[in-house]
Amino acid sequence: MKNSYTFVYTNLVIETMKIEDEIKSTIPIDIAKKVLLNISFTKNVLHDNFQELIKPYDLSGEQYNVLRILRGQKGKPVNMCDIQERMIAKNSNTTRLIDKLLLKQMVTRSECPANRRKIEILITQKGLDVLAELDPVIIQHEKFFANKLTIEELEQLNNLLEKYRN
Amino acid sequence: MKNSYTFVYTNLVIETMKIEDEIKSTIPIDIAKKVLLNISFTKNVLHDNFQELIKPYDLSGEQYNVLRILRGQKGKPVNMCDIQERMIAKNSNTTRLIDKLLLKQMVTRSECPANRRKIEILITQKGLDVLAELDPVIIQHEKFFANKLTIEELEQLNNLLEKYRN
DNA sequence: ATTTTTCATTTGTATATACAAATGTGTATT
DNA sequence: AATACACATTTGTATATACAAATGAAAAAT
């Protein structure tokens, strides 16, 4: 099951090999493709692992992220557009996401007194408790992958990714 | 808009700083977190860029991937479970995805004569034409990012990602 | 030969992603 | 003060992701 990643990876590389002949540039197209797929794959592996971990806690990945943003506020309320701005997936639907967290009693929602357009979201004690329970699990997850590299290699990886992206 | 990535990135790192004090290990937790977020981000940037590119062609990302898999078969039909196995997102719904491609007349679907359980999917000429039109666009996309690194750096990045993942 | 098991696909349900339009509120313009 | 514009959120629709259950066909077991 988990091995199917490798399949796609090699499949797509092979499938597009011949295009390389057509266009010459400083960077060979197969290496350019490989890096791109490699990043997508790695992210998928991380994502699957993460989903597996939080499954028993009745939280989706995005719900978890929102709770993390709320905890980071240390009691200061946040409104919808603040949350949306800070979420990984920019265009997801914050209203419906908060609805779900409300049902689970992990957040509260109230009208902002200063500006009736805005809404104030706060994390509840129940939400904080679930996060606290999850903290060591998440750290375990992050270290599981990071431990395969040295500190120098991790910093190198960060630098290369930032250079690649920007 | 695109800058909101940076916001999340730094937000999450800051939000979890204090946890680092609690658990000591060979790899500092903030570097472990940073690498993980860095990979997710970079993938998101690539994904958004890709979506932007194929939008005018009336294809979703997964529909494009399936067409690529079909073209890679060079005329040999594929059945549903083959496609599912090779797709990036393992659990997506191949039946409904193929339905959409059928409506656009980019694939054909027929019962496998040797095994009536199976179904044979083939790419049509129209599908091939769209892919051919998209090829240079995709190459442009892949090289746009790759050109920011040297060949040596790209290979280094590939190695680090593979080591990190496996 | 009939029953059971496995395989390939489809269908259903819940949530997530993506984008556009609608609603209601505050601010600026005249 | 009335109108126009911008802001914050909600609602709607289409597609994608994730998983479980249902359907129907082939293979294996008895």
TrEMBL record, chains A, B:
Gene3D superfamilies: Winged helix-like DNA-binding domain superfamily/Winged helix DNA-binding domain. GO terms for molecular function: DNA-binding transcription factor activity. Residues 32-166 form the HTH marR-type domain. PROSITE patterns: HTH_MARR_2. GO terms for biological process: response to stress. SMART domains: HTH_MARR (SM00347). It holds the Pfam family MarR. It comes from the Bacteria. SUPFAM superfamilies: Winged helix' DNA-binding domain. PANTHER family: MARR FAMILY REGULATORY PROTEIN, TRANSCRIPTIONAL REGULATOR, MARR FAMILY. This is Transcriptional regulator, MarR family.
